[in-house]
Amino acid sequence: MQLYSFFNSSTSYRVRIALGLKGVAFDTLPVNIRVGEHRDETYVATVNPSAVVPAIVDGQFSLGQSLAIIDYLDAAYPEPRLIPQDTEARARVLELSSLISCDIHPVNNLRILKYLQEVLKVSPEQKDAWYQHWIAQGMAGVERLLSRHSHGQWCFGDAPTLADVCLIPQIANAQRMRCDLSRYTRAMAIYAHAIEHPAFAQAAPAMQPDYSA
Amino acid sequence: MQLYSFFNSSTSYRVRIALGLKGVAFDTLPVNIRVGEHRDETYVATVNPSAVVPAIVDGQFSLGQSLAIIDYLDAAYPEPRLIPQDTEARARVLELSSLISCDIHPVNNLRILKYLQEVLKVSPEQKDAWYQHWIAQGMAGVERLLSRHSHGQWCFGDAPTLADVCLIPQIANAQRMRCDLSRYTRAMAIYAHAIEHPAFAQAAPAMQPDYSA
C-alpha cells in the first residue's frame, strides 16, 4: 500500500489514522501541496486525476478522496470496522463525518486561504477571522450532534469510527490556527482521549517524514 | 418520510433525486435558508442539530447531511441501489461524489458567498470570479475522473448512482451562475441524459413548492 500524503493535510491525516487503526503497512509518498506537487502531470495522469491529496495505490488499484479511501479500506481490510454496518449507527457516523468533511474542512483548506490572500488580498486579520468564523459555526454543529447522540469514550461508543477519524484532524487544525475550542467540551474530551491512541498519535503531522515546522 | 429542503440548495436537490429514484413518497417541508430558517431553534433542537438543509425524518429517525441521508436510504429502501456493493465500483462512485461534495460544492454555497459580500465586501465581479474559479478547478478534476473511469450513459454504467445524484445539481448550479462548462464534454453528456429522467426532472429547483425566481 502506498499513501500519497502531505504532513499537514487533514484529509491525508484521516487516511493515516485509518491505516494505523487497521494495522495496514504503507509507504508514505510525500506530495508537497505548498509548492503545487499535487498538480504534477505524472501524479495526475497515473495516480490521482482529482489532483489533490491524499491518494492510495493498493496493488493495481489507485483511489483518491479520503472518505472514499476509508470506505474502501473498510471493505478491503475490514478489521476493525470504521463505518458501522447497522443502519442507524452508520447514519450517525456518516452524518458527523460529512458535517466535518463537507461543511467545515473545505472552506478553510490551503487553496482557499491562498486565494483569499493572493487574489482577494485580505489582511492576515481577515484571514484569521474567516478561519475562526467557519470553525466556530461548524464546531457548534459538531458539539450539538455529539451532545444529542454521542456515547462512550469515542464519538459513538467504545471504539473509534470514521467520525473520530474526521474529528481529530479537524480539531488539531483548529488548534494550530489558535481557535478557542474550550466551549466544545464533548468534542474536546473525545480529542484528549483519541490523541493518546497509538494510531492517532503516529498519524499526527509532526510524526510524518515530510514534516517541517 | 418528511424532507426539510430549500428549493435552490443543491444538497437538498441530491436527496430529492434519490427519493425520486427510489420511489419513496415524501412531504417537502421548505426551510428558507435565505432568511435563516435553518437556524430556527425548534428545527435545530428537534430535527437537525447541524442547522443546515437538508434533513429527513423517517418515522422516529431524523438525519441530516445529504450523503449520510442517501447512504441511509440505500439501506432502508434498497431498490434501486445508488451506492454499488462491489468494492471497486463503490470506490469509484464515492470518489467522484466526494470530489463534488467536499471539494466543489462547499466553497460556493450561499453562506460562503454571503460572507464574501457582507463581511469581506468583495465586488460582484470578484464574487463571480471566485465562483467560476472553483467550478473550473473542480470540474476539470471531475472531467479527468470521468475520462478515466466513466462508462455507459451515466457516470458509471447504465443506471444512475450517487455520483450522478451529486453531479447533476452541481452542474445545474454552475449553469445558473453562468459558468462556461462546454469543455467538460463527458460530464455535460451525462447531464443532458440525466435531466430527461423523471426523478431528476421532478427534483429540479423550479419544480419545488418553495420555488421563487
UniProtKB/TrEMBL annotation, chains A, B:
The keyword Isomerase belongs to this UniProt entry's keyword annotation: yes
Keywords: Isomerase
GO CC annotations on file: cytoplasm
Secretion signal span: none
Keyword DNA damage set for record: no
Alphabetical list of Gene3D superfamilies matching this protein: 1.20.1050.10, Glutaredoxin (3.40.30.10)
Cross-referenced InterPro entries: Glutathione-S-Trfase_C-like (IPR010987), Glutathione-S-Trfase_C_sf (IPR036282), Glutathione_S-Trfase (IPR040079), Glutathione_S-Trfase_N (IPR004045), GST_Zeta (IPR005955), GST_Zeta_C (IPR034330), GST_Zeta_N (IPR034333), Thioredoxin-like_sf (IPR036249)
Domain GST C-terminal: 86-213
Source taxon at top rank: Bacteria
GO MF terms held by the record: glutathione transferase activity; maleylacetoacetate isomerase activity
Record GO biological process: glutathione metabolic process; L-phenylalanine catabolic process
Domain GST N-terminal per the UniProt entry, residue ranges: 1-81
Record-linked NCBIfam families: maiA
Protein family per UniProt: Belongs to the GST superfamily. Zeta family.
Protein name (Swiss-Prot/TrEMBL): Maleylacetoacetate isomerase
Organism: Pandoraea terrae
Source organism phylogeny: Bacteria, Pseudomonadati, Pseudomonadota, Betaproteobacteria, Burkholderiales
